């Protein structure tokens, strides 16, 4: 039988609950989210439960990682549904701070990112993004003091940035990446998929199929630049506005010349209609 999680919205309540976990010598995992939870998020919660005694899920739609033209105001917020899903997973604690708690009046500090944050992928199109992500995730790590933090691989560049940040700043948390959870037709689960029209939803799996075919060709010895160009043309022909389709080193995210430079990751970002989708797979 599921039980309702403890919900903390202010730092004293968060600290009181976490201090009780620590006093009992219980390990703590954190799953950072922006809510609108789907099966991909719940997979992260289950992995967190597998690794630690106590599971904390943060739900905070972070304004600092949205540019003025992006969808902060319309980003899906589904608190009641999220709470029910987390209760069914026996989540111990939900950290649901308000904007003023995370960014009080006079807030003036930021975490500046380098390395995998400036490799001409997401940072080319969303230059504000990783500074906002690193700052909020850094705060969540400090507030929640987890032993383990679980992130999905769908936001792969974000995973590399957060992993680097936790290591560089000695934050004492093990960052774990979990494989992308997909729909039956291969589309990566995302909170933004609700924006897709019926026709766009039918087209969206082209991204994953193109990556799979490209990876197969590369493993068979195909030349990288030409194979990526073929894949990019296929994505564009399907009706996407392509931002990038790249083969990169899976850890540094630097460009590669051959599979021998690997491990290798294919990464794609493209817009269909008004919805921007990202995805990645290993080669």
CATH-assigned fold name of the largest domain: Rossmann fold
Global outline? globular
What's the number of extended β-strand segments? 9
CATH homology group of the largest domain: HUPs
Counting copies of identical and different chains, the oligomeric state is single chain
Whole-number mean pLDDT: 95
Q: Can you walk me through this structure?
A:
This protein is of the alpha/beta class. The protein has two domains: 6-178, 3-Layer(aba) Sandwich (Rossmann fold); 191-282, Pantoate--beta-alanine Ligase, Chain: A,domain 2 (2-Layer Sandwich). 38% of the residues lie in helices and 19% in strands. The chain has ten helices and nine strands. The protein has helices at 11-23, 39-51, 79-88, 99-102, 122-125, 129-144, 156-168, 198-203, 206-219, 224-237; strands at residues 6-8, 28-33, 54-59, 93-95, 148-152, 174-178, 241-249, 264-272, 275-282. The strands form two sheets. It has a six-stranded parallel β-sheet with strand order 1-4-3-2-5-6, sandwiched between helices. Strands 7-8-9 form a three-stranded antiparallel β-sheet, with helices on one face. Strand 2 (28-33), helix 2 (39-51) and strand 3 form a beta-alpha-beta unit. The mean pLDDT is 95.
